[in-house]
Amino acid sequence: MRKTEAILKDAAAALDDGIADRDEILRALTKILRREASEDALQKVRTENYVPDAYGDVIRQKDEKVETVKIRPRLADVIRAAELLGRANGLFTAHACGDLAVPLVFCGEDELK
Description:
Layout: H1 2-16, H2 22-33, E1 39-52, E2 58-71, H3 75-88
Antiparallel strand pairs: 1-2
Helix pairs in contact: 2-3
């Protein structure tokens, strides 16, 4: 009984250590498939301003900054999530159901006697 308790404690510790279980993985893949998940990406934003100086000449001021934006999953990621979910649910395995009767004929049966 002690080995079973030790195994259960190890399993509980593994779950507490941040290891995702099956349900959590399936939920994450479903969020990607439904394009509900998002990730951060960096985007460079450039702006130009034209400001007159004291002499009436127009000065062009350039400004660049990097912003963090949220983006939706790419289509390739959505397709991959669908494939992984399909595999997890057994959609792509060929199951043959039914009975198959095959006649079996032995050749040379007379020579075996």
